């Protein structure tokens, strides 16, 4: 993304933030604003917590600082096939409702997962809430999912590889997943009637499966590959 476009996005985000403050709307329905263009160097930056743990099966790698960095205005989350390390970040800020959009380029190796999602709680328990965009099967399948109280509702769609802009809109009574074209027009991919109101943190991760039955069923067979997932920017409005 050019510096001029990123500046325009930042300006729009600031205007939205000022408008939200001026409106003074209270309560859970008020969506917070957020933007990160991943400029500069170093790790993810002060708005993010970088993971340093291993989630266990079906994850076939452990998250580490070494696999998260900025490069030429993008955030890189790397899967290192040699060391068994991979990358994950999550915002310090929590969100309730809003539109969550990113421009990203998924990795294309078999058995990998490039993600953009909201999450809270302990997986598979009543405390678990989650809204997902996951690019799997070499980046050719878009996995959309919403978890409510530990119960999931997912649908998958074929998708082109390469750079693309994707997002989801989370409101009181629905979640809508969408793609954005070069002119800024949105195409709805999925619209799911669901009521979720628990605050969640925004997360990005890139990992590979451990070739357990669950991992193969979800991601496909991992054949030893690795590589980068790239995120040009992330926006919440």
Automatic annotation (TrEMBL):
Give the GO terms filed under biological process for this record.
carbohydrate metabolic process
Keywords, sorted A to Z:
Glycosidase, Hydrolase, Signal
Q: Which domain of life is it from?
A: Bacteria
Q: Where is the signal peptide?
A: 1-31
Q: Which PROSITE patterns match?
A: GH16_2
Query: Which intervals of the chain form a coiled coil?
Result: none
**InterPro entries to which the protein is assigned, alphabetical:** Beta-glucanase-like, Beta_glucanase, ConA-like_dom_sf
Query: Which Pfam families does UniProt cross-reference here?
Result: Glyco_hydro_16
Q: Where is the active site?
A: 130, 134
A GO MF term: hydrolase activity, hydrolyzing O-glycosyl compounds
The UniProt record lists the GH16 domain at 11-237
Q: What family is reported?
A: Belongs to the glycosyl hydrolase 16 family.
The protein depicted here goes by the name GH16 domain-containing protein
Q: Which organism is it from?
A: Roseateles chitinivorans
């Amino acid at each position: 993304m050019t510096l001029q476009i990123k500046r325009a996005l930042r300006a729009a985000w600031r205007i939205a933030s000022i408008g939200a403050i001026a409106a003074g709307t209270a309560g859970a329905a008020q969506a917070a604003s957020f933007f990160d263009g991943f400029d500069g160097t170093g790790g993810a930056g002060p708005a993010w917590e970088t993971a340093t743990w291993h989630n266990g099966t079906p994850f076939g790698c452990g998250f580490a600082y070494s696999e998260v960095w900025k490069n030429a205005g993008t955030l890189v989350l790397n899967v290192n096939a040699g060391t068994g390390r991979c990358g994950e970040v999550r915002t310090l800020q929590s969100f309730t409702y809003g539109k969550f959009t990113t421009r990203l380029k998924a990795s294309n190796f078999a058995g990998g997962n490039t993600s953009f999602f909201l999450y809270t709680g302990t997986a598979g328990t009543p405390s678990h809430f989650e809204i997902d965009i996951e690019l799997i099967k070499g980046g050719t399948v878009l996995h959309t999912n919403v978890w409510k109280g530990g119960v999931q509702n997912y649908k998958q769609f074929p998708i082109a590889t390469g750079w693309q802009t994707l997002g989801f809109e989370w409101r009181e009574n629905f979640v809508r997943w969408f793609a954005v074209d070069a002119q800024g027009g949105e195409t709805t991919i999925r619209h799911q009637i669901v009521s979720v109101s628990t605050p969640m943190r925004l997360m990005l991760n890139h990992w590979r499966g451990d070739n357990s039955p669950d991992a193969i069923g979800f991601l496909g067979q991992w054949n030893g590959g690795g590589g980068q997932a790239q995120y040009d920017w992330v926006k919440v409005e």
